[in-house]
Design brief:
Layout lengths: L2 E2 L6 E2 L125 H8 L6 H6 L12 E2 L5 E2 L9 H55 L7 H27 L4 H25 L7 H27 L1 E2 L2 E2 H4 L2 H41 L5 E11 L2 E10 L4 E16 L2 E15 L13 E5 L10 E14 L3
Antiparallel strand pairs: 1-2, 3-4, 5-6, 7-8, 8-11, 9-10, 9-12
Helix pairs in contact: 3-4, 3-5, 3-8, 4-5, 5-6, 6-8
């Protein structure tokens, strides 16, 4: 199949690499795969160019952009100076073109066209064509490998490679403008870290402000939860104020357990907030108030859970001290709530502290009244029981002790009562005895004594049969228990007395 020059249309012979008419490399109208290193001249559009310069116009081959990222913008590099090619030592293929010539700049043989395809040097005027099929002498091959400086006339004929200015497009010798690659400030890859940093910065800012909103929302939800717990505690105290102050009743125990549980909840929420999340001054005031409310509820639970029967002077004093401690915690919680906010309003507007205080005071009064009444009822039961015991003792034909009361005096335990003469003789003195005594608090034993010896030396008596002495105190030094009691059981036995027999 015939081949034709793509540039001028001249018919090409088989195996010819350059057009014999125009010197253009044999890119024909017949489609053929491009050479592996072929390129298209950016100045004149010549295709399948070989080497580093266009054989038609002398334009240089554009180098690919560097792939290594650079720190700062780099100006396009100057075209490299022609270097000897190791392949030049090879024997050039025989040329059938009569227009072939040898480049005086680099020694490239069988050059076609007006410019050298290897270095871009121009064809010298009047250069004779190299005979077709003439092999290159070895000396010339070596000279081509290491080209000497050309003579002055040859140097004048070979123009230097065209320079590409940095700011304006270069014009070739035919007047055509050589396109210049746009100057880049930096490699595109060098922008990727900057873009990545910018994206990370935007994400960090979004996360920062987003997390701040999340933290504020978390604070608000937990504060509202605490307010709900306090409201529930107020309901518990309302129930407590409406029932008698019987610490042993199931209703009172339920309220006490609820108050203690709510105090633990408040402390748990507060400790979780304080330990893990940052705080601002207003939030610090809120959680300080929550802590003081937890202390108040804990003291209120202690009052309700107290088994102290406020019926005697000492028990009333202890219970009153417990109530005073709770009222002090109420004052602190009430004051702190004024500066704490939940849902942008003071905590004191959400929690009726005045009602809480009123409920606690009501329970205090109810308990004291209940305990006093309960103690009196127990005392009356005890008196009735002891009266029955006295009646049984009077049936004995001996001197007996009728106990009326047992109580503490400092560290001493005192049993008071009267001696009864169940004999038919005149009793003149009572000398010693042994005492059994058990004291209890509303049925719960506190202390017991067994066969405790006691000397009385009660003399000068004139105790007639079926008569009693005045009240006598049997003092047992150091035998008083620490706990209070309101019940006792006694048995005074082995009493020794002297008498004057009746006539």
């Amino acid at each position: 199949m015939a081949k034709f020059c793509k540039h001028c249309g001249n018919e090409l012979k088989e195996g010819t690499k350059f057009c014999a008419k125009c010197g253009t490399p044999t890119g024909t109208v017949e489609s053929s795969p491009p050479a592996p290193n072929a390129w298209t001249c950016p100045a004149c559009g010549h295709e399948n160019a070989k080497g580093k310069f266009c054989a038609k116009c002398g334009g240089g081959k554009l180098e690919e952009a560097p792939t290594v990222p650079v720190e700062a913008p780099v100006a396009p590099a100057e075209p490299p100076a022609p270097q000897p090619d190791d392949k030049s030592v090879e024997t050039a293929p025989p040329s059938t073109s009569p227009d072939a010539w040898t480049c005086p700049a680099c020694g490239h043989e069988n050059a076609k066209g007006k410019f050298c395809a290897k270095c871009g040097g121009g064809k010298p005027a009047g250069t004779p064509a190299t005979p077709a099929g003439t092999p290159t002498p070895p000396s010339e091959t070596k000279a081509a490998a290491e080209p000497p400086s050309p003579p002055p006339e040859m140097q004048a004929a070979a123009p230097p490679p065209p320079e590409i200015p940095k700011t304006a497009p270069t014009e070739n010798i035919q007047g055509g403008a050589i396109p210049q690659a746009p100057e880049q400030s930096s490699n595109p890859r060098s922008k990727k870290p900057l873009i990545l940093l910018a994206v990370l910065a935007v994400v960090a800012i979004a996360v920062f402000f987003g997390s701040g909103k999340m933290i504020d929302s978390y604070y608000t939800s937990k504060a509202e939860e605490c307010a709900a717990i306090l409201t529930e505690s107020k309901s518990l105290l309302d129930n407590l104020a409406e029932i008698p102050g019987d610490a042993a009743s199931d209703d009172v125990k339920k309220v006490a357990e609820g108050l203690a549980k709510n105090a633990d909840k408040l402390n748990s929420i507060r400790s979780g907030i304080i330990g893990k999340l940052p705080r601002n001054p207003q939030q610090e005031k809120t959680w300080d108030a929550i802590g003081k409310n937890a202390e108040m509820l804990s003291k209120a639970a202690a009052i309700v859970q107290s088994q102290e029967r406020a019926f005697a002077p000492m028990s009333i004093k202890r219970f009153s001290a417990l109530c005073d401690e709770c009222m002090a915690k109420w004052d602190e919680a009430n004051t702190a709530a004024t500066y704490a906010t939940v849902k942008n309003q003071p905590l004191s507007d959400l929690i009726p502290y005045a009602d809480i205080k009123k409920d606690l005071q009501t329970y205090r009064r109810n308990k004291q009244a209940f305990d006093a009444k309960y103690a009196q009822e127990k005392y009356n039961e005890e008196r009735k029981k002891h009266q029955e015991q006295h009646n049984e003792l009077k049936k004995k034909s001996e001197v007996v002790f009728l106990a009326d009361n047992a109580y503490k005096n400092g560290s001493d335990l005192i049993l008071s009562g009267r001696f009864y003469n169940g004999t038919g003789d005149l009793v003149t003195s009572i000398m010693d005895m042994q005492i059994d005594l058990k004291v209890s608090l509303f049925g719960t034993e506190v202390q017991s004594l067994k066969d405790e010896p006691f000397s009385l030396q009660l003399s000068g008596l004139r105790l007639m049969p079926q008569q009693t002495t005045d009240v006598v105190q049997l003092r047992l030094p150091g035998k008083a228990p620490e706990e209070d009691f309101n019940e006792f059981e006694e048995h005074v036995h082995k009493i020794r007395w002297s008498r004057m027999k009746a006539r």
